[in-house]
Amino acid sequence: MFLSIDAGNSNIVIGIKKEDSSVWEPIYRIPTQQNLSAAALEKSLRLFLLENGIKTLNINNIGLSSVVPELNASLINMCRMLFQLEPYLIDEYSYGNLSVKTSRPAEMGTDLMANACAAYQHYQQACIIVDFGTALTFTIVDEQGNIAGVNIVPGLKTALNSLFATTSKLPQVKLELPSSVIGKDTVHSIQAGILYGYTGLVKGMLSSIRSELPLDFKVIATGGLSKILTTLKSDFDMVDQNLTLEGVRLITLHQR
Ligand SMILES: Nc1ncnc2c1ncn2[C@@H]1O[C@H](COP(=O)(O)OP(=O)(O)O)[C@@H](O)[C@H]1O
Ligand SMILES: CC(C)(COP(=O)(O)O)[C@@H](O)C(=O)NCCC(=O)O
Ligand SMILES: [K+]
Ligand 2, closest atom to CA 32? Predict the structure, then answer.
């Protein structure tokens, strides 16, 4: 069984893919805290695996993408303790011979690279990956597999939290799409502003990207919040919450 770890700024996502299976199951999410210890991670993952009937001995390969370097040592040590395995930590040297190429390997988030690899492997054509995480990102891959560029915007929850944190009178609200765009009270005003506003942002970005680089793009959505904007259904060819996990697997298998 392969174990992928995707350490993001909001969640550490850990997924298992069985030999010959096409699905990621089970999947464990741990809220990201920079000071998580290896022992704490080991304890909670051990319990999760036990509850799901997964024997640690059956895990034979581990790939790790982290955009939170503060967590790397704990995650690596957790793998050593729990599986007696050395995880493969994706870094800028992981990209040689991949079908996806980037001109700025040292800087680009390994989660974005993993997304690009999984999407390009699936479609074998130009694609745009929209990742609704802590940051909302667009990763643009051309038909040869070259990453043409990336866009980074505050994610929906990040925008919402910042509004709450930087104002005196605005409350925290649920990320729910109201039926009307014109806000009739404060909660509705924020919900409509964020959800319809981000709908426009995503549609506008996709359209601007296509104007500047007119390719036949497949658009793939991923990330924890990818299902909230139901208004974008027709803009996405696929929504795949496990795209990053799959990309981590592909990059790791390429290396060992
Ligand atoms: N299944 C889910 N349903 C609703 N919200 C989610 C879900 N998974 C994650 N979230 C929220 O979506 C946001 C982005 O999460 P995630 O995609 O895990 O971010 P990151 O990759 O930056 O860690 C977070 O605020 C998280 O709490
Ligand atoms: C853009 C990101 C913050 C997204 O992280 P996430 O929202 O998944 O937690 C991450 O990929 C990152 O730190 N990237 C480095 C900068 C870059 O990709 O150009
Ligand atoms: K992510």
Answer: 9
Residues 215-255 have pLDDT tens digits of 999 999 999 999 999 999 999 999 999 999 999 999 999 99
Provide the ipTM. Answer: 0.95
Whose CA is closest to 222, among 251, 243, 206, 197? 243
Q: Identify which of 33, 67, 117 to mutate to test ligand 2's pocket (most ligand atoms within 8 A of the CB).
A: 67
91 CA distance to ligand 2 centroid (A)?
13
Beta strands in the chain (DSSP E): 2-7, 11-17, 27-31, 61-66, 88-89, 127-132, 135-141, 147-154, 218-222, 238-239
Residue whose CB lies within 8 A of the most ligand 2 atoms, among 5, 6, 9, for a mutation test: 9
Give the pLDDT confidence of 42-74 residue by residue, as tens digits: 999 999 999 999 999 999 999 999 999 999 999
Report the nearest-CA residue for atom 10 of ligand 2: 109
Q: Which of 20, 91, 111, 216 is catalytic?
A: 111
**Reduced to 3 states, what is the DSSP secondary structure of residue 237?**
coil
Q: CA 232, 236, 242, 245 torsion: positive or negative?
A: negative
**Nearest of 68, 77, 67 to residue 45 by alpha carbon:** 77
**Residue type present at position 179:** S
161 CA to centre of ligand 1 in angstroms:
13
Non-local (6+) Cβ contacts of 238 within 8 A are: 122, 218, 219, 220, 221
**DSSP designation for 250:** H
